[in-house]
Amino acid sequence: MIPKEIYVETVRQLLAPVAQFMDDPTVSEIMINGPHDIFVERRGKVERTDARFENADAVLAAMRNVAQYAGGFIDERHPILEARLPDGSRVEAVMAPIAQGGPVVAIRRFSKSTMTLERLVELGAMPGDAAEALRALTVAKCNIAVAGGTGSGKTSLLNVLAACVPASERVLVLEDTREIEVAHNHIVYLEARKADEFGEGTVTIRDLFRASLRMRPDRIIVGEIRGAEALDMIQAMVSGHGGCLSTLHATYPRDTLTRLETMCMMSDVEMPLPAIRMQIGSGIDVIVQVSRLMDGSRKITHITEVVGFDVDTGKYQLVDLWVRKYHGTDAHGRVQSELVPTGVLPTFLPRLEEHGVALPASMLRAAVSSTSQGA
Questions:
Q1: Domains of the chain, with CATH numbers?
Q2: For residue 47, pLDDT beyond 70
């Protein structure tokens, strides 16, 4: 294997055409659509750049170097590469002829500054009271699914929630590619592994999850649910493993549960759909929906309780605790909105009391106001 110091310098030289963006803290994604067509995402907006590689071979040389260090491959037999750069940036590369027009590369960069609930409040992702509510839900070991689209801030929020876990608890983090970094007293990171060139040695998230259940976890955090591991996680939640955290791709809270259904059905365990739905309705406590708005800002749009699954109606019982209200755009095209409590209190209030935490006063005031108006 290449010594890390040599690898760092080599990658730096090979990626020289986009080095300025690698050094720019405002850039969150670098998209190389062939050697002469390069875009970046800066503050939520995608823009074309003047950067150019000499040719397709120059891009491919950089990716082969990345693959060699990561123990992967990118060639005609292995045209897709998933890897990490020395600074932790995630790389996804697809080579020709699978990618038309030459190698296509997406480099997802992560902020070097530690994100916190307070910082998310400063950025306008949510108000302070909603942050207080999320902290309470996490401490009380609610099973929370963070859902949203690509680039909506799911992983950043997951990192923030993980940091709210009490220091006395043992946390196991399971990921395909290392993205979660939590300053915690007792944390174990496990990373999945792809097959080698002979098709052997695969270790999936599902394998890691099953192993983690035997490692005395207080919390299990799955970076992203993508497949059959969804059923294992839901069954663990139902069987008493509280405080699980994960992310998945979905646009609205109800879509999140539908996606979980689909992924549970990818499992080799044959289970009727109604039984899967009952377990999802019982296992997931809260869905935190995040979205990237039209102005590029990342916001929490819903904090929703999953009350359960109603067999008679065949529908999940969802109750919004917080919802984002929209008020148009200002003169600069910025979306004007606010995340507000709905006046509904969650059914798991006793669990919060058991863990010595409480909901913010604004939720209680909204509940009183809602009751008064209803009367």
A1: 4-108 (3.30.450.90), 117-374 (3.40.50.300)
A2: yes
